[in-house]
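Q: How would the structure tokens look for this protein?
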Amino acid sequence: MNNEVLLTELSFKGIRSSGPGGQHVNKTASKVEVSFNIETSMAFSEQEKERLLHKLSSKISSDGLLILQCGETRSQHRNKAIVIERLLELIQQSLKVPKKRKKTKPSKSAIERRLKSKKEHALKKSNRRPPKIE
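A: Here is the predicted structure in token form.
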């Protein structure tokens, strides 16, 4: 992943935001929306693109764009910084390769303990039954 190339490929849009700000909210576009096309990006290898498209499939639009928004603060510049930070964090988390699970075998003592408790439980249950009359 190449962050410098990635940052040049982002496209930003200012939107009027709800929330704090009074009349200022009605006049300025402080909410920031960032869109990023993973398929056409030059910042990732083909393998990384496949992993991102698979992991982020629920967040990618039908146009193939990954879209994030931020309207938390009154400042457009601060919202832009927050949304870039979120996008980079999301991409880094999605690029992580999960560790393969190694199968483990229970120890002999654990197997013996389990069988012993099963026998005790079965004995307790069998003692509760009424005796057979022949």
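The two ends are 80 Å apart (CA to CA).

Helices lie at 3-9, 24-27, 46-55, 76-95, 108-128.

Upvote if useful.
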